[in-house]
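Weekly structure sync, notes
Attendees: PL, DS, HV (note-taker this week)

Item 1: Acetoin utilization deacetylase AcuC
DS walked through the input record. Source organism listed as Brevundimonas viscosa. Sequence as pasted into the shared doc:
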Amino acid sequence: MFRVFDPRQLAHAPAQEFHNGGWAPHADLPARAANIADRLAPFEPARDLGRTPILRVHTPEYVDFLEHAHADWRAAGRPGDAIGYAWPVVGRRPLNLDRIDARLGRFSYDACTPVTPGTWEASYWAAQTALTALQPVLDGRERTSFALCRPPGHHAGADYLGGYCYLNNAAIAARAARDAGHARVAVLDVDYHHGNGTQDIFLDDGSVFFASIHADPASDYPFFWGHADERGVGEGEGANLNLPLPRGTTFEAYVAALDTALEAVARFDPSLLVVSFGADTFEGDPISHFRIATGDYPRLAERIAALGRPTLIVMEGGYAVDALADNVEGFLSGF
Ligand code: SP5
Ligand code: ZN
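Item 1 (cont.): predicted structure, written out as tokens:
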């Protein structure tokens, strides 16, 4: 399997996140990606495929904000990582305010996703990692490819960051596949959390099917997206499938939902599949509550591989740092 990792992604090292009323050490440690990279070496480095494919998903205003937010934060005299504290209620005017706190509020939706000095560099190379891994699948040289992306991407929308995500690596790759001539692309999201950014990006787009299996947003982050009645809008009506599951979900119940998602993807009949893979469904994950065991990951992957589509696997979450390489290695072995 073709594998891409770029060490520039380690430049992002957020110190802490706001959670349940207090500051906690940030869960997206650079060691997450470094451990997987060590175990699965060698990797191809990312090629620089430029900003154009990023701007096919994200707005120019947001990309400009993300690139300069930390410098603007420093210019405002602030120490540490940049983070917002005030957010516009949905539907308010998109005011072009200058103050860094207002712009952090405009382009984000939570307080667990700080902008650090290395965030732009790492996010840029995460997007390039996904795009580089996509190329041999587009060319037909590889059937399956793995993009070891960090920071993850599936919570980032066209003009917002959140959920440890800044640029939506999977969405950027899916849009690039569409632009390269694939008429129908599916994104299957098997991270523990709902991929709200990916859903928002393709919600009215009938050419990209989004299917997600995740913790019920009634109990789990990101709360405001991921409910079963979100089925797409306009031309995208019916091209969005959310399968929320309760905390405590075991392999057996998970597989039943996965098979439902896979049947829907097969009916959509995509010529290319993007898998947003989070290993935070693991029973030992420190911030999640499903009961998938290390030995289950190859069996999950085999079911996805049975779709028989050219496939790009994009790394999303997974926070049990010591078990992560085993879980990722197991998942990839199923393809
Ligand atoms: C890509 C991804 O998996 N994002 C997950 C974002 C979840 N954020 C909300 C849960 C925060 C729990 N934080 C606990 C910090 C302990 N150090
Ligand atoms: Zn997650």
